[in-house]
Specification:
The structure holds two protein chains of two kinds. The radius of gyration of chain A is 24 Å and the shape is flat. Chain A is mostly helical. In chain A, helix 4 runs antiparallel to helix 5. Chain A is 69% helix and 2% strand. Chain B is globular and about 70 Å long. Chain B folds into three domains: 239 residues, 3-Layer(aba) Sandwich (Rossmann fold); 58 residues, no CATH class; 241 residues, P-loop containing nucleotide triphosphate hydrolases (Rossmann fold). The mean pLDDT of chain B is 92. Classes of the chains: A mainly alpha, B alpha/beta. At the A-B interface, helix 7 and helix 8 of A face helix 3, helix 4, helix 5 and helix 14 of B.
Chain lengths: 308, 559
């Protein structure tokens, strides 16, 4: 849990303007949703890896991906069991269900489920990178620039601020109640849930007390004074930042182009076939990957320019 | 600067006033110390001065409060923010940003100051507090003391003319507390800021304060120049339960015996001058020998070559060997992060040794569960709020017994016994979290002691407690010990150790540095010496034992 937090590791990825990273994420999102071809989706996922590496957030990223893998497994399983389309039948149930017919497991359904989860993995990977490399305060500024209301943004930023405090509270209260003989891992599920109420109740009550005190402190420092708030720090927008942002949005544009012109598409049903990109598609695949990874040299460039 | 006229305040839904008919005037640049028992109205008074009462905390209010000419009834806390700065007790709950610089800018941003002015003020505040080196640091990585300094800086950035601090050091370790207090005195001295400090630890600040106001039961019980109050109102202070520094108690003790002393000392240095005169007139009575630790042959707890490394690789304890006997009163002391709590958590298996082992009455902790050990080892944590979750005090106490599988009759008998012992009978059906601080502490203690553990561990139980509650708790622990149980106290409070413990274990960097009888360990240890010992050390050539730790020991040898 502790690792799900922003830490300033000072890498070139951390130093990028948050808008550049938001642009990049938009591209990943667009590509993952527009494209169908397993080859293209795999390329999208792989393109996120060099950035994770450069940001030195491997271990945090891995723990996020571990959770994502459970989700993927569920997607594959459900799709396989529910979808009966496809011609490569691997297994046919010896019974008949009303409405559904004879349950079958097809190779097509498994592959479709796997590629669906690949989509999800790309999106999660990109968001994990965003969470681990953008200072929540900067994210708050970016959101405000995007004209989201200050109070909602502040709530989000406060929850980032109090997450470590909450985790400490949980650890402490758990120790207290275990010392009082509370056994969390004994009994069946209802019993286990019940034993956790001792912890949850104390935690909630503590958090409420805390919330009142935080409100009191904020008020004492003129929060909500009625004037239009100013912001001390600004997300500077240098020419490099603008260039970077444009570059980061290019893959999204390319994705839309491909979607409209039928590139990067693939049909799973009724029969899977080998993916064999046409000449044009191979070029587009290369271009897309190159544009996604281009964030790295741009980040390096930004660092050089900022230093000068 | 501040004028309070006939102020009375009731929190909503209460029939007992938090403040009663208070009239005060506080001048510009004054350093006012506000003391008094918990629940006496100290915090409420502070809240009245920046408008939190009645704008944030509603209730019935009579009289009026004027701050720099502004009536707090008509001007809200937000408007008063540039007149009155307020620093709260827990640094954790008053910081809202992720890094230091933004935290300091927060108030200025709220007031819509232009960016260049904010930059100037941030710079200024960082320099005033001397924390420019922290400017880009993440708040989560700072120590408690540093966080409190950031809180002060963030308030100062608004250029208030009055600074109110509500027990700003009670969540801090001694080093952090000392730093914060010295900053506060400097702000008053050099910047001429009017300071109103609500504080339990009088010994560090008494000499800098101009005035001491004691609030008891919502009323001003004492109000006067610090030395006057200490000289003339001593019986009154003891009656209310104010923690008067040991040097003053010693001198007052001498006065009671008829020794003529003009001005009461506020510092150890002043105390030395007085004691020197006393000793020149009458040599000290020869001290009976003290300070022999006892040999433990049949240990209740034995720690053998204990080492512990946290899962993240942090080496917290190394090669610790201890024998703890029955009916001992032990304190574990040491700097922050020296391994005190880590060691304590091993006694009831909250942590399992990564090297070596611990045996509690013969039982290896690696082979027992926490629940099994809970019958032998009780653990009371610092904040009673972490203990309390049940609907009634009765259920709270019975909870531990239920967990450990006691029979229904046994649970009833023991719970009743605990309610009696801790004078909680009248609150039996009350919601524990709505009780006062002292009562909550008693419920937490009762819930742990219901199992009658042979070993009772307390992790910094006196932090943030007022003098009266502290003495009440310590007296109880002493009693529990005389019943044949062992008490292990993790604490920073030297004066408490001097008064009540018999053995001190001093940890540093995860190792036991000293383990011995308290007179051996605490005397002549510069940082850890209690006030009386620092006084006694200068009089060895008069034949005063340098092992004296407490007021009563000192009074015994001064004829």
């Amino acid at each position: 849990m502790r690792s799900f937090r922003y830490q300033d590791k000072g890498t070139i990825v951390h130093r990028l303007n948050p808008f550049s990273k938001l642009g990049w994420i938009t591209s990943i999102l667009v590509l993952s949703l527009v494209l169908d071809s397993p080859l293209f989706l795999l390329a999208v996922f792989l393109s996120t890896l060099p950035l994770v590496k450069a940001a030195r957030v491997w271990s945090e990223w891995l723990s996020a991906m571990r959770l994502a893998l459970y989700l993927s497994a569920a997607i594959i399983l459900i799709n396989t069991l529910v979808s009966s389309h496809g011609t490569h039948v691997l297994f046919e149930a010896p019974f008949h269900l009303p409405l559904v017919g004879v349950p079958v497991i097809t190779l097509e359904a498994i592959i479709y489920g796997a590629v669906m989860s690949l989509r999800l993995l790309s999106i999660i990977s990109a968001f994990a990178l965003l969470t681990f490399t953008v200072n929540p305060d900067d994210m708050m500024l970016a959101m405000i620039k995007l004209r989201l209301p200050y109070k909602s943004v502040l709530v989000t930023s406060l929850s980032a601020r109090f997450l470590p405090t909450l985790l400490d509270d949980i650890a402490r209260i758990t120790d207290v109640q275990r010392s009082r003989g509370l056994e969390l891992d004994r009994g069946r599920l209802p019993q286990r849930i019940k034993s956790r109420t001792a912890i949850v109740t104390a935690l909630l009550s503590n958090s409420l007390d805390r919330a009142v005190q935080v409100a009191e402190a904020m008020e004492s420092r003129a929060f909500g004074s009625g004037r239009k708030r100013t912001f001390y720090r600004d997300l500077g927008f240098s020419p490099t930042d603008i260039t970077t942002l444009v570059f980061c949005l290019l893959p999204a544009a390319l994705g839309i182009f491909m979607g409209l012109n039928g590139y990067g598409q693939y049909h799973y049903y009724p029969t899977v076939s080998w993916v064999s990109p046409t000449g044009w598609e191979a070029w587009l695949l290369g271009l897309m990957s190159a544009l996604l990874v281009a964030l790295l040299p741009l980040a390096y460039l930004k660092q050089r320019v900022d230093l000068d | 600067m501040i004028r309070i006229e006939g102020l009375t305040f009731y929190y909503s839904d209460t029939t007992h006033p938090a403040l009663r008919d208070i009239s005060l005037e506080i001048g510009e640049g004054e350093f006012v110390l506000v003391a008094g028992p918990s629940g006496g109205g100290k915090s409420s008074l502070g809240r009245c001065l920046n408008g939190l009462i009645p704008h944030f905390y509603g209730g019935k209010i009579y009289g009026r409060v004027l701050v720099s000419g502004l009536d707090t009834l008509k001007h809200s806390t937000k408007e008063l923010a540039t007149k009155v700065g307020f620093v709260f007790q827990d640094p954790e709950n008053q910081l809202v940003s992720l890094d230091v610089e933004r935290e300091i800018a927060f108030g200025l941003e709220n007031l819509a100051f232009p960016r260049d002015l904010i930059a100037k003020r941030v710079e200024e505040s960082l320099d005033t507090l001397g924390i420019a080196n922290l400017r880009y640091r993440q708040l989560s990585g700072l120590s408690g003391g540093e966080k409190q300094e950031v809180a002060i800086a963030s308030v100062l950035a608004l250029h208030p003319s009055v600074l109110i601090l509500d027990e700003p050091t009670s969540e801090l370790d001694p080093k952090g507390a000392e730093e914060v207090l010295s900053i506060i005195t400097r702000l008053n001295d050099e910047l001429g800021l009017t300071v109103i400090l609500i504080e339990h630890r009088l010994d560090r600040v008494l000499q800098y304060a101009d005035r001491l106001i004691v609030l008891d039961d919502g009323m001003v019980a004492i109000d006067g120049e610090v030395r006057d109050v200490m000289t003339n109102c001593y019986p009154e202070l003891s009656r209310i339960g104010i923690g008067v520094p040991p040097v003053i108690r010693l001198v007052q003790g001498l006065r009671d015996r008829g020794v003529r002393i003009g001005r009461v000392p506020l510092t150890v240095k002043e105390g030395r001058a007085i004691i020197r005169k006393v000793l020149e007139n009458a040599p000290p009575v020869q001290d009976t020998s003290r300070g022999n630790g006892r040999e433990i042959t049949n240990p209740l707890v034995s720690v053998e070559r204990l080492g512990y490394t946290y899962p993240n690789g942090l080496l917290a304890l190394r090669n610790i060997n201890l024998k703890i006997g029955e009916a001992e009163f032990i304190t574990i002391m040491g700097r922050n992060a020296s391994g005190k709590t880590t060691l304590a958590k091993h006694f009831n298996r909250l942590l399992v040794p990564t090297k070596g082992r611990i045996r509690v009455s013969g039982l290896d902790t690696r082979e027992a569960t926490i629940a099994e050990l809970a019958r032998k080892v009780g653990f009371v944590f610092q904040n009673p709020n972490d203990h309390l979750f049940a609907d009634t005090v009765y259920d709270e106490i019975a909870f531990t017994l239920k967990n450990l599988g006691f029979s229904r009759e046994e649970i009833e008998i023991r719970t009743a016994e605990m309610l009696e012992r801790f004078q909680l009978n009248e609150y039996k059906n009350h919601y524990p979290r709505s009780l006062s601080g002292g009562e909550k502490q008693r419920v937490a203690l009762a819930s742990v002691l219901a199992t009658k553990p042979k070993v009772l561990i307390l992790d910094e139980p006196t932090r943030g407690m007022d003098y009266r509650l502290k003495s009440e708790l310590m007296r109880f622990l002493d009693e529990y010990r005389t019943e044949g149980n062992t008490v292990i106290l993790v604490t920073h409070d030297v004066e408490i150790v001097a008064e009540y413990a018999d053995r001190v274990i001093l940890l540093s960097e995860g190792k036991v540095i000293v383990d011995g009888e308290k007179h051996q360990v605490l005397s002549q240890a510069l940082l850890f010496s209690p006030q009386i010992n620092r006084l006694a050390q200068s009089f060895e050539r008069y034949g005063v034992s340098s092992k004296i730790l407490t007021v009563s020991e000192a009074l015994d040898i001064l004829s």
